[in-house]
Amino acid sequence: xxxxxxxxxxxxxxxxxxxxxxxxxxxxxxxxxxxxxxxxxxxxxxxxxxxxxxx
Length: 55
Prior knowledge:
By secondary structure, the chain is mostly beta strands. The protein is 0% helix and 65% strand. A hairpin with a 2-residue loop joins β2 and β3.
């Protein structure tokens, strides 16, 4: 498998976003059965953790 970054930017809240396409090659014997996109993935920056108040 291999991955390719296809987008890098920010979302509507200003958080960083990257989008990737994961490619997969399926081979049986000497025949290539499939060679193409396997999955599309979007990663977003996590929001900061909230502080819990004690009391």
